[in-house]
Amino acid sequence: MRVNSLGFRLFSVAAIWGVIVLVIAAILLSSLYRQTVERRFERELALYLNTLVAVVEFDDTDRLASRPDLQDPRFQTFLTGWYWLIMRPTADGQSVVFPSLSLANETLAVPNATDIPYDLDFRRSFRLSDPIDQPLLAVERQILIDDRLATFLVAGSLDDVTVDVAEFERVLFLSLGLFGAGFLIGTFAVVWLGLRPLAAISRALGDIRDGRAEKLEGRFPSEIEPLAQEVNALIAANRDIVERARTHVGNLAHALKTPLSVLTNDAASSDDALAHVVRDQTAAMREQIDYYLKRARVAAASAVIGAAHPVDETLDALGRTLLKINQDRTIDLSREGENDVQFRGEKQDFEEIAGNLFENAFKWAKGRVHVSVETGLETPTHRSAFALTIEDDGPGIAPAQRETALKRGQRLDERTPGSGLGLSIVADLVALYGGSITLNESDLGGLSVQVVLPRAVSS
């Protein structure tokens, strides 16, 4: 997909939105799972707390009658992250603290009740750190024993929670990553399949433009079918307009040529000065009419969609014809380059271009004419093109005179028969088709004329 293509835009929007949704989902799921694990962990601590309350006993001196056993070795091993505390107020208002063996005569920094108050059940939970900075979650509760409050606290290490959450996040991110990759692949497939009809229409239009088809054919989705029908109607209307233009051009030619013929014939019967002027002017008018009507016809023909003509057919026919016409001269005609090339335009226009170039080459050649066809080029309007080059071993044209040779009616040698229109006609026709013409010195010693013309590309 190109960056500025419709498919890239659709895929990018879907991909960005999908990634955003997956990231949000990952954060929410991870947060919810962490909250769930912590609540479960808090319930586990509350269970230990209730057990501690049930098994503890005080003697007459408000000391523990015996050290409580919660049946968990983590409360017996030093600094494991699992601790319990019992705080019992004495008669003089002081507080005696009874710690678990795992505290190893260390203390826990329990927050003040004003900072984290108790709930209605005289219970609270909070986070804190043990003497070796392990993160802990603690559950604390106050219970009335012998008319005096006793505070019970059980704390457990959050490392198990962190490991559990980290494992869940690893699986979660892996799963969402695989889902995201599948989503992107599916989105790409949807966009590609959804836009395939547009690509088919683009290829079909290219076939029409290059002469391989006359209209859009095939089945299209219901959303695109009206577009295909309108395009076919536009192509048909274009052909109708061009055909009407050709008819009007022909009618105009006949309408003007008949009065000119009458004037020419009447002037031919007289030999006075006026008759000479009439003959000269009617000849000039006829030439102008032929020239501009031909330009109008070619301009209309170059706009026809789907016109194409094989180059080899015209080149072979012109070569045979001119060799016969010049059979009294020994001329070697050679050919190289690509075969099966098609000109994207009208047959008679290519015949006019190639015919004028062939005639010029044969007229000036001493003994050799070389023709070559090269593909893989572009016209100045960036259309697929081919180059037709015709060279001879004649006198050539000086660089300073080459631009003049392309102008209408300019003759560089008055001794040689001709109207001086050959190269100018070629230049006009090539320009109407969006091509280019170049005059250079030939490797044979004479003139090399290269024309670049639009090419009908075969599928």
Structural commentary:
- With 459 residues, this protein is of the alpha+beta class.
- The protein has three domains: 7-162, Beta-Lactamase (2-Layer Sandwich), CATH 3.30.450; 225-302; 309-454, Heat Shock Protein 90 (2-Layer Sandwich).
- Helix content is 49%, strand content 18%.
- The protein contains eight helices and twelve strands.
- It has helices at residues 6-55, 159-209, 225-268, 273-302, 311-325, 347-364, 402-405, 422-432; strands at residues 83-89, 95-99, 123-129, 135-145, 148-157, 309-310, 332-337, 342-343, 368-378, 384-392, 436-441, 447-454.
- The protein has a five-stranded antiparallel β-sheet. A five-stranded mixed β-sheet has the order 7-9-10-12-11. The chain has a two-stranded antiparallel sheet with strand order 6-8.
- A hairpin with a 5-residue loop joins β3 (123-129) and β4.
- α3 (225-268) runs antiparallel to α4.
- The longest helix has 51 residues, at 159-209.
- The chain is rod-shaped.
Could you give a quick summary of the protein structure above?
The protein is an alpha+beta fold and 459 residues long. It has helices at 6-55, 159-209, 225-268, 273-302, 311-325, 347-364, 402-405, 422-432; strands at residues 83-89, 95-99, 123-129, 135-145, 148-157, 309-310, 332-337, 342-343, 368-378, 384-392, 436-441, 447-454.
* Broad shape: rod-shaped
User: How much β-strand is present in the residues?
Assistant: 15-25%
Query: Overall pLDDT, averaged?
Result: 83
- Provide the number of structural domains: 3
Q: What is the H/E order?
A: HEEEEEHHHEHEEHEEHHEE
Helix content: 40-55%
CATH architectural category of the largest domain: 2-Layer Sandwich
User: What structural class should be given to the helix and strand makeup?
Assistant: alpha+beta
Number of helices: 8
CATH C-level label of the largest domain: Alpha Beta
In which order are the strands of the major sheet placed? Answer: 2-1-5-4-3
Largest sheet: 5 strands, antiparallel
Number of strands: 12
CATH fold topology of the largest domain: Beta-Lactamase
Q: N-to-C terminal Cα separation, in Å?
A: 22 Å
Which stretches are low in confidence, meaning pLDDT under 50 for 5 or more residues running?
Answer: 411-420
Radius of gyration: 49 Å
